[in-house]
Amino acid sequence: MSPFPYRLVATDLDGTLLRSDESVSDRTRNALAAATAAGAAHIVVTGRAVPWTRHILDDLGYEGIAVCGQGAQVYHAGEHRLLTSLTLDRQLAGLALSKIEAEVGPLALAASRDGLDGEVLMGPGYKAQEGPLPYVPYEDPAELWSAPLTKLYIQHPTLTDDELTRAARETVGGLVDVVMAGPGIVEILPLGLSKATGLSLAARRLGVKAAETIAFGDMPNDIPMFGWAAHGVAMGNAHEELRAVADEVTASNEEDGIALVLERLLSA
Questions:
Q1: Nearest-5° Cα angle at 226, 224 to 230
Q2: Distance of alpha carbon 254 from its chain centroid, rounded?
Q3: Where are the alpha helices (DSSP H) in 184-256?
Q4: Closest C-alpha among 57, 83, 85 to residue 193
Q5: Where are the alpha helices (DSSP H) in the chain?
Q6: What number of other Cβ atoms are within 10 A of residue 212's Cβ?
Q7: 208/257 Cα distance (integer angstroms)
Q8: Rounded to an integer, what distance in angstroms lies between the CA atom of residue 145 and that of residue 112?
């Protein structure tokens, strides 16, 4: 058997490692365990902030470093502490938001507060994703800006996610970054922040280089991570923008796409 060719396996969560019911299949768990036994580290790289990620990591028995909040947070799961955390400039975010709304009209808003226990606030009209993730509704707009934030979420009543992302980028691309992270999830982030920046920080702590990394993802927010890693694998359910830059496309998250690639590499 040849040595496993990568020292780091980076996986997104939603639409990638997780199935639609937020579980990880036994086959995928076993493939990741075999890769780590062969000398690779597994690192979760997710758009979710730590409070929405921690329960999944605990269920996996994951005790290493995770990259959360689109790269804003580097989190040590075993020690339950933040190693780094980057916040969104609220004044700049407010300016960007006003410019976007001047271009496309009123938006529904949500925001993720900074910290290990940072709440997700959801304003009037924002459509929450189905599932158990907790959030706090708000009515007073001042409440949105009352504490440090990692990101803003924006939704438009008629524009598609792609259309909203494109319009927002064209309007405020020099002030903040705008990414689409999933269905109904368009985010405003600090300028220059991406999964690649967070992953590079985490990899440096692990003593691993980009050339030694394979990455798995499904949405456009994974594009920077694919650009950083040596090999990018898009899931069968991936957005067309990510598929276009991927080195290969595997099966979907419901069909053990990660396991199929890892098993092939382990038996090469």
A1: 130
A2: 18
A3: 195-206, 223-228, 240-245
A4: 85
A5: 26-37, 54-60, 90-104, 141-144, 161-172, 195-206, 223-228, 240-245, 257-266
A6: 17
A7: 24
A8: 11
Long-range contacts of the stretch 32-35 (C-beta < 8 A, 24+): 32/258, 32/262, 34/262, 34/263, 34/266, 35/4, 35/6, 35/9, 35/262, 35/265, 35/266
- pLDDT tens column, 15-59: 999 999 999 999 999 999 999 999 999 999 999 999 999 999 998
* Token pair in block for residue 251: 């099966």
Q: Any idea what DSSP says for residue 38?
A: T
Yes or no: say if 224 and 189 are a contact pair by the CB < 8 Å rule.
no
Nearest residue to 114 via CA among 93, 141, 139, 140: 93
CB 45 within 8 Å of CB 198: yes
Q: Which two tokens stand for residue 85?
A: 């955390």
Q: Which H or E run contains 66?
A: strand 65-68
Both tokens of 41, joined, read 């580290």
Separation of alpha carbons 235 and 243, rounded Å: 8
Burial class of residue 39 (count of CB atoms within 10 Å of its CB; 0-12, 13-18, 19+)? exposed
Please give the share of the chain, as a percent, with pLDDT higher than 90: 93
Q: Report the SS3 class of residue 36.
A: helix
Nearest CA to 40 among 197, 209, 213? 213
